[in-house]
């Protein structure tokens, strides 16, 4: 009896839900030639209850040699909200949106991080949730 009760507890605890926002496939590519230096990540987003739209905004943070703080680098489509090509993605509970982001031609000797801000909106464009994740540091030498 006790063993069976223990198994039930373990099974119930084993039920987990994947994170609503996460990173996978982080890469920091170092090279002597700046054109070959890059930082990349795959952002993975799942809907919150009531989601009508999902969006991600990537920012590149740079800490120059000798400085003690990060500054935003504004190039390309950085710091702009991106939505899935399928506007209904996120309206079904099992939906998953994966978005690859690569930033190359990193100057050195600096330190970089990619930041992604994830946003869920519902009916009437009401924000249901927002969170942000940052990659580990990427040293461009």
- Quaternary structure of the protein: single chain
Question: Could you tell me the strand content as a percent range?
Answer: over 45%
Radius of gyration from the CA trace?
A: 19 Å
Question: How many strands?
Answer: 9
Show the helix and strand layout.
Blueprint: H1 2-14, E1 21-29, E2 38-45, E3 53-63, E4 71-73, E5 81-82, E6 97-104, E7 110-121, E8 127-134, E9 138-140
What key phrases describe this protein's structure?
141 residues, mainly beta, Immunoglobulin-like, six-stranded antiparallel sheet, three-stranded antiparallel sheet, 1 helix, 9 strands
Task: Sum this structure up briefly.
The chain is mostly beta strands and 141 residues long.
Architecture overview:
With 141 residues, the chain is mainly beta. The protein has one domain (18-140): Immunoglobulin-like (Sandwich). Helix content is 9%, strand content 45%. It is built from one helix and nine strands, in the order αβββββββββ. The strands form two sheets. Strands 3, 4, 5, 7, 8 and 9 form a six-stranded antiparallel β-sheet that branches. Strands 1-2-6 form a three-stranded antiparallel β-sheet, with no helix packed on it. A hairpin with an 8-residue loop joins strand 1 and strand 2 (38-45). The chain is elongated. The termini are far apart.
């Amino acid at each position: 009896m006790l063993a069976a009760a223990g198994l039930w507890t373990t099974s119930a605890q084993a039920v987990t839900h994947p994170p609503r926002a996460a990173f996978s496939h982080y890469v920091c590519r170092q090279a002597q030639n700046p054109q070959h230096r890059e930082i990349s990540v795959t952002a993975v987003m799942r809907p919150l209850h009531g989601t009508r739209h999902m969006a991600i905004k990537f920012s590149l943070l740079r800490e120059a040699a000798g400085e003690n703080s990060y500054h935003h680098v504004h190039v390309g489509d950085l710091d702009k909200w991106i939505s899935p090509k399928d506007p209904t993605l996120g309206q079904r509970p099992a939906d998953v949106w994966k978005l690859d982001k690569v930033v190359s031609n990193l100057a050195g000797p600096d330190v970089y991080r990619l930041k992604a801000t994830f946003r869920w909106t519902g009916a009437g464009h009401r924000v249901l949730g927002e969170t942000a994740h940052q990659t580990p540091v990427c040293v461009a030498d």
